[in-house]
Amino acid sequence: MATGFTINSSTSNDINPSEYNDSHRLFLQSMLSHRILTEGEAQNLYFKICDLINCEHVEFNEFISVINHEISEISLSLRITRDETNGSSFIGLVNTKEDELAQIATKYTPNEITYFRQMIETIVMADDDKYAIGSMVAIRLGQTMKPPLTQKETQTLIDRLNDDQWICPTPDGSSYCIDTRGIMELQGYLNEQYGDVIKHCKMCHDIVTMGERCELQNCEVRFHRHCADGQFSGRTIVCPECETGWSRTNIFGLGLPL
Amino acid sequence: MVHNDDDNQNTNGNMEVDEMESEEEYSQDDDEEEEEENNDYETLTRQIAEKTDRTKYDPSQNKEERRQIREELRRLSKKMEENKRSLLQADNDGLNEGIQMQNEVYARIKNVSEATIDSKLLVMTADLGAQKARNLKLDNDLFNADEFVSKIKTLGGSRSKLDWTRIGNRAFEYNQRAHTIDFMLGPLSVEKKQRKTVRQVRIIKNKEDLVQPTQLQEGDIAQQENETSANVNQIYKILDENGPINYLEFITNPESFSQSVENMFYVSFLIRNAVAEIDDSSGQPILTTRAPPAPEELAEDLTKKQIIMSLDIPLWKDIIDTYGIRSSIIPTRPRRQQSMTSTRWY
């Protein structure tokens, strides 16, 4: 991350937008601070930057890809995913490689990281495709650590994880599920660790932790709610694999708002 | 007339006057008594006045004097307020001088209202002292923390909820700290290798398989054969038929120790309800049935007596030998049937 920036750069006014310039640098600096933004906010940011730098606008996606090309060298990436609760687009800065440098790039202690790892395991392995961990279970999980965390420490840790947007509370307030940022960064990790149990959306093929499922108990077909909206508009609603009638109310994942 | 010193001495200036007369006064005449009483009263008050300690508290202190004290105290606090700024300088000894002057005034204070003013002044002095100490730490000339904080508050709108965005924007101009970002993908991978081996099978709970504790209905528990009251009645009948009989012969079952103990248990109910009695006046305990006692007998001194009988196996064998018991008078009760129907545990 050696890309510094200065506004009073020595470049002239005719800035080539397809080359990595100050606008990209400024955007990246902003993303370092925000970590994750809605696509709308990100685009506003982009317009502001363009005005500031005084360069012309390009297609937002093109802008992002220029940045990605540069930062891929240091195993970072700007990813665009959709929030599973409502389908809105988010863009976030994530790490793509689990190398030694990345291992120390965190302000959580190793014990806390272990806690988070177990929390993720509990969430992914939860019964009934809940993809959530109950608040009390989460607190008790802290006591199984070595050394054990007190209830207060556990709660503080959970709050910090929440503030950093790795987890978020479910709509009914009873449990925690993995937040958009968490899914965004940990896609690879989850696929690798839990590849056989974690499900993927039939439409977009991304990991799905809340959405709609097939009526048939054994059928593995899952959709994000926003993907299902696209799939099942108008036509007769059946499961694409087993052809059972599809009920749009057969949902899973506690994080999904009703 | 002798009055004891400790009767009169009131160190807190208590002005309550108890008229006390010694025994000698009763013998004097009425006229003289009245005069004597007045004299006594005067002497009394005089002595009380002399002995009262008015150094610390004196409600009868001169009003003018009190006014002067209050005036001086107020003057001192005003002075301290005005000179606050200079007093806080590290080299200024004004606080010390202020304390000295306060001490001098305090020596003259003899009432609560003045003392209150004095204590307020002392608190203010102490606060200034604390502030001075704080400033000393931060080298007051270069940077005054309190001033800085108050200026920040003004920038933020001086309301209870500050406008932090505005403050932040201003601070940003002087701040060149680089942003940091923390990731989760790297840290999580530590120890990833071991995780793969431990795997739980995820189960989807089937509603039907959920187990609930079985609800017991009343008729489910089969009535047990060894009902105590039935047995007690049975034994009463047997006793009635057999008439007065040796207690030990009656209860002992030569074939079963446990049955003997149970027999003893059931007989004790009979005794408790006073439908049977043991009479050992003859040297041997004789058990007979009897009618329950009438109320008159109870009133007339018929008391209840409690004895604890114990029986262990050697003793039981001994009884069988001594009395030559061959067969049991009380028939042996059959063992409780254990019918284990498949699902039920009761």
From TrEMBL, chain A:
MF GO annotations: ubiquitin protein ligase activity; zinc ion binding
GO terms classed as biological process: double-strand break repair via homologous recombination
Broad class of where this protein is predominantly found: nucleus
Catalytic reactions of this protein: S-ubiquitinyl-[E2 ubiquitin-conjugating enzyme]-L-cysteine + [acceptor protein]-L-lysine = [E2 ubiquitin-conjugating enzyme]-L-cysteine + N(6)-ubiquitinyl-[acceptor protein]-L-lysine
Keywords: DNA damage, DNA recombination, DNA repair, Metal-binding, Nucleus, Transferase, Ubl conjugation pathway, Zinc, Zinc-finger
Superkingdom of origin: Eukaryota
A GO cellular component entry from the record: nucleus
SUPFAM superfamilies per record: RING/U-box (SSF57850)
EC number in record: 2.3.2.27
Domain Non-structural maintenance of chromosomes element 1 RING C4HC3-type, first and last residues per copy: 201-242
Record InterPro entries: Nse1, Nse1_RING_C4HC3-type, WH-like_DNA-bd_sf, Znf_RING/FYVE/PHD
Subcellular compartments: Nucleus
Quaternary structure and interacting proteins, as annotated: Component of the Smc5-Smc6 complex.
Function text: Acts in a DNA repair pathway for removal of UV-induced DNA damage that is distinct from classical nucleotide excision repair and in repair of ionizing radiation damage. Functions in homologous recombination repair of DNA double strand breaks and in recovery of stalled replication forks.
Assigned protein family: Belongs to the NSE1 family.
Protein name, as recorded: Non-structural maintenance of chromosomes element 1 homolog
Species of the source: Phascolomyces articulosus
Automatic annotation (TrEMBL), chain B:
Alphabetically ordered keywords of this record: DNA damage, DNA recombination, DNA repair, Nucleus
Residue ranges occupied by any Nse4/EID protein Nse3/MAGE-binding domain in the UniProt entry: 118-155
Subcellular location, principal: nucleus
Segments of this protein annotated with the region Disordered: 1-68
Subcellular localization(s) per the UniProt record: Nucleus
Positions with biased composition (Acidic residues): 16-40
Alphabetical GO biological process terms: DNA recombination; DNA repair
Keyword field contains Amino-acid biosynthesis: no
Record's compositionally biased regions (Basic and acidic residues): 48-68
CC per GO annotation: nucleus; Smc5-Smc6 complex
Domain Non-structural maintenance of chromosome element 4 C-terminal: 244-330
InterPro entries associated with the record: Nse4/EID, Nse4_C, Nse4_Nse3-bd
Subunit-structure text: Component of the SMC5-SMC6 complex.
Known function: Component of the SMC5-SMC6 complex, that promotes sister chromatid alignment after DNA damage and facilitates double-stranded DNA breaks (DSBs) repair via homologous recombination between sister chromatids.
Family annotation (PANTHER family): NON-STRUCTURAL MAINTENANCE OF CHROMOSOMES ELEMENT 4 (PTHR16140)
Recorded family membership: Belongs to the NSE4 family.
Official protein name in the record: Non-structural maintenance of chromosomes element 4
Organism of origin: Phascolomyces articulosus
Lineage of the organism: Eukaryota, Fungi, Fungi incertae sedis, Mucoromycota, Mucoromycotina
